[in-house]
Amino acid sequence: MATDGNIPNWVEAKLLDLLERGGFLSGDRGPVTSSLKLLNSDGLCSSMFRAVVESGRVRYNLMVKTLLNWRFDYYADMFINESRMYQEVLPGLLGGHPEVHPFIPKCYGAMAEPGEGVILMEDLSLQGFTHAPRTMDLEHICFSLKALGRFHALSYAAKKTDMPKFLQEIVHRIHGALKDEYTQFFMGMIIRESSLHAIQLFSTRFPEEADKHSDAIKSLKQMIDDSLPKMLSSALAQSPLAVVCHGDFTRNNLMFRYGEDGKISDVKFVDFQMSRYSSPVVDISSVICINTSPELRAAHLPDMLSAYHGGVVQSLSESLDCPPESLEGEFGLEAFQQEYRRGVLHGFCVASFFTQAALEGPGCIPVLGSSDTRTAEDVLQFLRDKRLVYSEEVNRRLAVLVKEVLDSNYLEPLISYLQPPE
Question: Which domains are seen in the chain, by residue range?
Answer without folding.
Answer: 2-122 (3.30.200.20), 128-418 (3.90.1200)
